[in-house]
């Protein structure tokens, strides 16, 4: 005999009345024991009540797996009360990981064919919630039949179940294509919304379906036009907008159908203009429809005037009081700034005003868009606004703002002096937040502007005298004072106010930097080197500099100690060479656009050299005879090897200068993976200075119609190799050839063994989780030999 157990309502009250977690667990364990006993005794009358209590326990987070088979028994029952609880239990307790879910396939098939609408609704809900790929393949014909049932209740649920089936098994697209055309003639908004969603899923997953449904674009346009022109309806209108959910879904479908298709885009242009001009924007529902209209205009081949209208709508969104709408507008304009730069530029003042937003996410988006709007015509005005924002921006935005200003100044600087002033302002305001290469870039810029050496050194000296806490600024100032200290003392710079500086003040300032607790070891190194260079540029006695250098011979920092020891040795033993060793630094080559132009000029000069006639053999013989004179009078002395007949070859040998080895041949790229438009390519580089190191760049591209999200690439190599994975550039690959993801693999192969890779790719594509594990053992021989 089964012991009496609590009713569901009593169980809920007792659990809620428990004062401690231990009391709650005691109540639940006791009731679960009653439920198990009831299941064992096979009580058919109260089985659904026991399962209902078990489902409540499951919702609280306690284990309830022992009720899975009871769900199957209740589903197979002929009573509706049993089926209702049984299907609810199946949706909560069963999923694809349990083989038991396959056992209800036959029960669902029978219930779908019974013709009882409530039972059919329960079966369709369960199938759309936990149906696996095998269940979808088996039950697709039954769902297809229900799509054309006269009852709207059943058809709505059948359409949603078909959407789940397409997501699980894309090859079922051909089954649901014919019913969709008939369902578009429905007047029931719920059925129409489900049909549009189903067509959208079909078009995203099947190119054949996309071509098929492009024929119904005029019909979709007519449906949307009817919605826009329809007056107020109590059944469908929300905030004065006629069924915004259906309008948004139709606009999304039109965006997919009109993408890269001229005819379809032309058909919907007039409608989009009508929606954009007639939609009420006083409520959020109208803004949602308007934003979806903007996205559709930008994604199809729309007219130029329509695209300008879309950008102006986003500009009006920036003036909206709702922060969410302003954020959406900034994000959308950031996507459009490359394709419609001039149209977005019209809203530049509004974008700049958004920098003062108190919301961090809004100000960050406004900063990104402001930096994207900088060009050669507005660089001065935009830099003033951005520099003003840099002084008051939150600390978490200061690094991004400083880096953006430096990059924009480097790209669009009208003059070198303006470029130097801009970088100095950034270093003075947010020096601790700039990128690591800011110091090298500024020293390179100053070194290449000979006419600005006096101006730069005086500006930096003044900035250093005011503040020594900004370490990048202190490093640049110390370098500049060391290089051009003589110009600082001359005081003949006409571009700024004259400032009389004597040697003692300069030396005292550098000593202050050396002694400051805020100075980093690298900064002290700059200051010590600057003092050493000033020993050849100042006219006075060097005893003070020698004393400072000797003090740091016992410094705890090894790098600074080594420099001090070397400089002290230079004073004591090689003082006659000090002036030559401490000359001004030559200009260092750098990467960038200017370097590319110089490379082109060098290439042209090399072509001219190749066109010059090669030295003749008598000239080379004469040069060998001259070399024989240096070997003495011995007649059997060995001659040097024959000289290279290339231009300059004899001179290179004569001076015994090392010749640069020819660059290694490029290693061909390798495609290692391709599936549904997702492709992974590997490119290889072996640094000449370290042949045992192999740098592999994995590039993931996406040419399909759907975005690839949560992309993760993992790799493994044999034990004889060492692998280091760098962080990827992102985890999302946009559709239709969007920005790819790159990730660097560093493989150390000292034994030059054949390289083998084992890769695992995981990502989401078309709402499906994909995992691929494969081995790559056909890497080019040049990558490891």
UniProtKB/TrEMBL annotation:
Membrane protein topology class: Peripheral membrane protein
Highest taxon, organism lineage: Eukaryota
Record flagged with keyword Kinase: no
GO cellular component terms listed in the entry, alphabetical order: AP-1 adaptor complex; synapse
Primary localization: membrane
Compartment(s): Cytoplasmic vesicle membrane; Endomembrane system; Golgi apparatus
Entry protein name: AP-1 complex subunit gamma
Organism: Macaca nemestrina
